[in-house]
């Protein structure tokens, strides 16, 4: 994004707020705080780029991805890197899929409904106005009639359907499953973005996960961050925070970050960690902060994301068009469930290398059979899910003995899908296999995976179940707040982006209403 | 399903850029010597031969002129051959092609013949003055061109042994036909310009040829000057030759070029012209074009591994051959994975049961040493066991589970290297690299339905 004319703070200045991370958690809050007159500095580990600089080439597009190594363990290790972690001014929104279902009220009161999992310490009716504010500001495309919420309205008509969308619609219709155009934080028509300027309509280029080059897809660098900048916030790219300093009372006084090989100290009256579900707990554990009850790093969750692909006679080439343009919410609470919770289904697009990686990790193919399967790529189309993942104390992030270049221990994440997750996956595989088959697909491929980095610093009513209170404020350190997906107490079936941005606006309001 | 992917024409094109005071004619013998193997397209640069100096003959203008000519030719796979002055032009074009700035695709190699470097050419000042003087009015012939005398003196100074009469006549005529302004433009400006920061380092396969009796641009200067630009250069010195290599020793030059093409530059899988055309077009961004242009360059046959030992690399090559079989003109997937490891380019995570990526590769490959000499059946068994986690490697610190995790990473890494090559893109009918250029509005896709193709796509518009 264009950083020219940006207000610049001095290292000796004590700024009001430092925000670490500029993604879905950090950016909306920064815009709110700066608009309210606070002096805010955002420290972002990744680079600052212009939308036009992105490339659809998957090998090179990793410049917008967090590629520092993490150790993944447990029975069902989750993949990081391009699978779920962004880096750069804009965070993961640079390469997210912008599929934006709203959080489901039932999922937020999960324990009350099912006796398992946890409830959010925030009521849905309190969060929903923030969701609406985010949608209105960013421009979300969606159907005029949303089957699971008839009163819902979207600002823009749906984005175009591609071959896999038509496939999913066909299969669902044959089985009597409701499906429709997905809510997408992608503008289907030119949109004047307040604080930024023109965002051009989606041109169906298909490369959302490699970075949208015309601003059609919502990304923080073409929305909330320019607003924040115009209200006086400073955004420092290439600045990786590794140390948090506190005074005798335990309050945060400054952070130390590395930029261009040199350490700098920035003083602050308040710190907001928005470094994401892995880096935030890693920073806290490394600095031994906010962890008096040992909650930091616990209850890591990753959405179930199994995919089912089929081969079609016609060329599908699902790299064309917005990748996830169809949704079905019919399985959020499937009637025949042998589990609690449920899942969302979406149509899938896939780039060749992502397809190859998922195929290999999910199968035992090699040799001519592998290259033949890869050559089937253009004939393949598939569906995927986003499934509830119950929090579990044993799914946990800890620090390993290996350190990175800055001397910070690498994160070690143990993740084992539980019985409920397995039951959901089995159900989803059956459902999606039926859909793909009904749509005419053969040679069904089931590719297990999980996605998103949730939990580890969760919101809780009290310190023994959470790291931060319902507003996102640390129980231990009053001038430390957390605003990223690490605070999710439960996973929700909705993908996290929209909820995260709504939560970010809410946390900003909480900060502004605090006397400090 | 049809796999009528266009065959890549076997004969590459060599675009030949001549020296100062010469023209395309100087490559006539080379054309004959290479005929059948390589198509020689020699270009008269502005102010030389048949090309009038219309828009100017500065280095920049000459470069853009040649880029337009290459584009108009439409070659799918090509080399640049630059002689002396033409060498500097070739290097700049190579740089613009590999960065994606030029609307070209398919550069496979650069051949420099007694070439001028991208930095100021070493040239004694008195000699420069003398040559500039030849183009001044007092010296020049009645037609305003260099005199016959000056031309002969110039040619004589640049050859090791007397030329055949026809060659001499043709060389002299080349000088005589040079527009004096173009002559001066090179001597006064072009040869003195420093293009090294635009050109940088080039990884393109390069053959750098010098004449044993050349002066300022002989072998030591080539190694020092052009060697600094080309990271993967092979140097050849030709005996009984000075500076006018294509005229003095066309057979030897042709032989060196053929060897270079067969052993190195031409060994990568060819990209069908229809795919190359889209990459070169305004549908593909400069950045993406540059990435793909660099990726299709042939792997170095003498590749020295960055992090693996030679033995480990050999084992990985044997494994790659089984895991991701390719035809002739294979990509050296193992070398590319070694490079990826050397650059620290993991994928952002690893299985916690494994040591760091490089160590896992080293240990895993050490556990499989000798894989290449096993029977295909045994190899197949081993692979199946590595994949299902039952392979036991005696004496390895990696247990079966760890070998399984590492082998999964290796399968992914090798297959991704294969999948990322534009030749494979064409095989899997992927053309998303052409989803938008650098215009104010990106093109994207218009037809998204199954079976539909747009007219710009490599396979052409239609239904399938
Ligand atoms: C491939 C992909 C597809 C996705 N698709 C969807 C989708 O379709 N719908 C949806 O709702 N969600 C999707 N998501 C998830 C969504 O993008 C994330 O949940 C959301 O962006 C998380 O916000 P965050 O603020 O927690 O973290 P991020 O957005 O990841 O931001 C964290 C930022 O902090 C920076 N940072 C980390 N450590 C430090 C440090 N020490 N110092 C300074 N800076 C640091 C990082 O560089 C990063 O920029 C997707 C994610 C990915 C990766
Ligand atoms: S498909 Fe649309 S939203 Fe996605 S990257 Fe392309 S233009 Fe942007």
Structure explained in plain terms:
The complex is a heterodimer of chains A (516) and B (464). Chain A is of the alpha/beta class. In chain A, 23% of the residues lie in helices and 22% in strands. In chain A, strands 1, 2, 7, 8, 9, 10 and 20 form a 7-stranded mixed beta sheet that branches. A 6-stranded antiparallel beta sheet of chain A has the order 4-13-14-15-12-18, sandwiched between helices. Chain A has a 3-stranded mixed beta sheet with strand order 3-17-16, with helices on one face. In chain A, helix 1 packs parallel to helix 11. Chain A is globular, with a radius of gyration of 22 Å. Chain B has 464 residues and is α/β, with parallel strands linked by helices. In chain B, 44% of the residues lie in helices and 9% in strands. Chain B contains 20 helices and 9 strands. Chain B has a 6-stranded parallel beta sheet with strand order 2-1-3-4-5-6, sandwiched between helices. In chain B, a hairpin with an 8-residue loop joins strand 8 and strand 9. The chains are: A alpha/beta (516), B alpha/beta (464). The structure holds flavin-adenine dinucleotide and iron/sulfur cluster.
| Structural class by SSE content of chain A | alpha/beta
Global outline of chain A? globular
Could you give a short account of the major beta sheet of chain A? 7 strands, mixed
SS strand fraction of chain B: 5-15%
Which radius of gyration of chain A do the C-alpha atoms yield?
22 Å
Tell me which ligands are bound. flavin-adenine dinucleotide, iron/sulfur cluster
Shape of chain B: elongated
Helix amount of chain A: 10-25%
Q: Biggest sheet of chain B, open or closed, and with what strands and sense? A: 6 strands, parallel
Strand content of chain A: 15-25%
How many distinct beta strands of chain A? 20
Query: What is the number of E strands of chain B?
Result: 9
Briefly characterize the structure.
By secondary structure, chain A is α/β, with parallel strands linked by helices. Chain A has helices at 26-35, 105-108, 110-114, 124-138, 163-175, 224-230, 276-286, 352-361, 367-375, 419-438, 496-512; strands at residues 14-20, 40-43, 70-73, 180-181, 191-193, 197-199, 234-236, 240-246, 252-259, 262-273, 298-304, 307-311, 326-328, 343-347, 380-387, 396-403, 409-414, 442-447, 450-456, 480-482.
């Amino acid at each position: 994004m264009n950083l020219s004319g940006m207000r610049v703070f001095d290292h000796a200045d004590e700024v009001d707020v430092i925000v670490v991370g500029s993604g879905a958690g950090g950016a909306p809050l920064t815009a709110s705080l700066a608009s309210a007159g606070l002096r805010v500095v955002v420290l972002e580990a990744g680079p600052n780029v212009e939308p036009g600089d992105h490339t659809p080439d998957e090998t090179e597009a990793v410049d917008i991805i967090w590629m520092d190594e993490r150790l993944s363990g447990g029975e069902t290790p989750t993949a990081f890197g391009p699978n779920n972690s962004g880096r750069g001014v804009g965070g993961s929104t640079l390469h997210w899929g912008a599929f934006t279902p709203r959080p489901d009220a039932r999922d937020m009161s999960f324990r009350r409904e099912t006796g398992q999992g946890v409830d959010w310490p925030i009521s849905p009716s309190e969060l929903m106005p923030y969701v609406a504010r985010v949608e209105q500001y960013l421009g979300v495309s969606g159907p005029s009639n949303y089957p699971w919420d008839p009163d819902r309205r979207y600002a823009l008509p749906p984005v175009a359907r591609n071959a896999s969308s038509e496939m999913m619609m066909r299969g669902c219709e044959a089985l009597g499953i409701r499906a429709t155009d997905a809510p997408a934080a992608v503008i289907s028509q030119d949109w004047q973005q307040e604080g930024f300027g023109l965002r051009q309509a989606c041109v169906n280029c298909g490369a959302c996960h490699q970075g949208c080059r015309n601003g059609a897809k919502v990304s923080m660098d073409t929305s909330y961050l320019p607003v924040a900048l115009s209200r006086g916030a400073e955004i420092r790219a290439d600045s990786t925070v590794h140390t948090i300093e506190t005074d005798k009372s335990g309050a945060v006084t400054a952070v130390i970050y590395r930029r261009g090989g040199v350490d700098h100290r920035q003083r602050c009256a308040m710190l907001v960690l928005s470094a994401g579900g892995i880096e935030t707990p890693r920073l806290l554990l490394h600095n031994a902060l906010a962890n008096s009850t040992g909650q930091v790093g616990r209850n890591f969750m990753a959405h179930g994301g199994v995919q089912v692909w089929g081969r079609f006679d016609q060329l599908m080439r699902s790299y064309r068009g917005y990748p996830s343009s169809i949704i079905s919410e019919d399985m959020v609470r499937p009637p025949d469930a042998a589990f609690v919770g449920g899942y969302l289904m979406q149509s899938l697009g896939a780039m060749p290398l992502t397809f190859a990686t998922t195929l290999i990790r999910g199968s035992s193919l090699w040799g001519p059979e592998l290259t033949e399967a890869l050559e089937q790529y253009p004939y393949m189309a598939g569906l995927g899910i986003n499934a509830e993942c119950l929090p579990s104390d044993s799914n946990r992030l800890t620090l390993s003995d290996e350190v990175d270049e800055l001397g910070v221990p690498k994160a070690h994440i143990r993740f084992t899908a539980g019985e409920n997750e397995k039951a959901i996956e089995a159900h989803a595989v059956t459902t999606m296999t039926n859909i793909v088959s009904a749509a005419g697909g053969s040679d069904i491929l089931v590719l297990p995976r999980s996605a998103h980095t949730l939990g580890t610093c969760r919101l809780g009513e009290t310190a023994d179940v959470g790291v931060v209170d319902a507003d996102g404020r640390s129980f231990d350190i009053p001038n430390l707040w957390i605003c990223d997906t690490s605070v999710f107490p439960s996973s929700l079936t909705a993908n996290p982006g929209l909820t995260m941005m709504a939560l970010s606006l809410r946390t900003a309001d909480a900060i502004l209403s605090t006397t400090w | 399903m049809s796999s009528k992917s266009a065959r890549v024409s076997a004969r590459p094109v060599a675009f030949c850029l001549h020296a100062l005071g010469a023209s395309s004619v100087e490559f006539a013998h080379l054309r004959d010597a290479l005929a059948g193997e390589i198509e020689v397209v020699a270009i008269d640069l502005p102010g030389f031969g048949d090309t009038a100096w219309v828009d100017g003959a500065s280095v920049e203008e000459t470069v853009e002129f040649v880029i337009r000519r290459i584009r108009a030719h439409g070659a799918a796979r090509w080399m640049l051959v630059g002689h002396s002055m033409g060498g500097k032009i070739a290097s700049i074009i190579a740089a613009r092609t590999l960065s994606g700035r030029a609307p070209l695709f398919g550069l496979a190699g650069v051949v420099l013949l007694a070439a001028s470097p991208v930095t100021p050419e070493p040239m004694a000042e008195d000699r420069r003055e003398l040559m500039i003087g030849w183009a001044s009015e007092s010296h020049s012939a009645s037609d305003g061109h260099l005199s016959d005398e000056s031309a002969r003196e110039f040619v004589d100074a640049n050859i090791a042994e007397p030329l055949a009469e026809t060659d001499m006549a043709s060389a002299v005529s080349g000088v005589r036909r040079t527009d004096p302004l173009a002559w001066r433009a090179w001597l006064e400006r072009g040869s003195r310009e420093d293009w090294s920061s635009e050109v940088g380092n080039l990884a393109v396969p390069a053959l750098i040829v010098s004449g044993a009796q050349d002066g300022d641009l002989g072998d030591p200067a080539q190694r020092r000057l052009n060697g600094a630009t080309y990271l993967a250069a092979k140097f050849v010195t030709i005996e009984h030759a000075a500076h006018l290599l294509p005229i003095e020793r066309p057979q030897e030059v042709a032989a060196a070029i053929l060897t270079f093409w067969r052993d190195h530059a031409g060994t990568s899988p060819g990209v069908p012209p229809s795919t190359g055309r889209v990459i070169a077009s305004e549908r593909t961004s400069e950045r993406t074009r540059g990435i793909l242009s660099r990726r299709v360059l042939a792997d170095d046959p003498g590749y020295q591994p960055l992090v693996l030992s030679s033995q480990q690399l050999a084992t990985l090559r044997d494994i790659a051959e089984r895991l991701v079989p390719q035809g002739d003109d294979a990509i050296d997937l193992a070398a590319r994975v070694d490079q990826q490891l050397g650059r620290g380019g993991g994928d952002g995570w690893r299985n916690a049961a494994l040591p760091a990526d490089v160590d896992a590769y080293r240990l895993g490959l050490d556990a499989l040493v000798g894989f290449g000499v096993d029977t295909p059946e045994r190899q197949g068994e081993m692979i199946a066991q590595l994949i299902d986690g039952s392979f036991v490697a005696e004496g390895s610190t990696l247990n079966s589970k760890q070998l399984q995790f590492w082998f999964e990473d290796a399968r992914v890494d090798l297959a991704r290297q294969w999948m990322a090559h534009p030749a494979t893109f064409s095989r899997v009918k992927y053309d998303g690299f052409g989803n938008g250029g650098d215009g104010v509005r990106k093109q994207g896709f218009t037809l998204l339905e199954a079976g539909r193709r747009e007219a710009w796509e490599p396979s052409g518009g239609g239904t399938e």
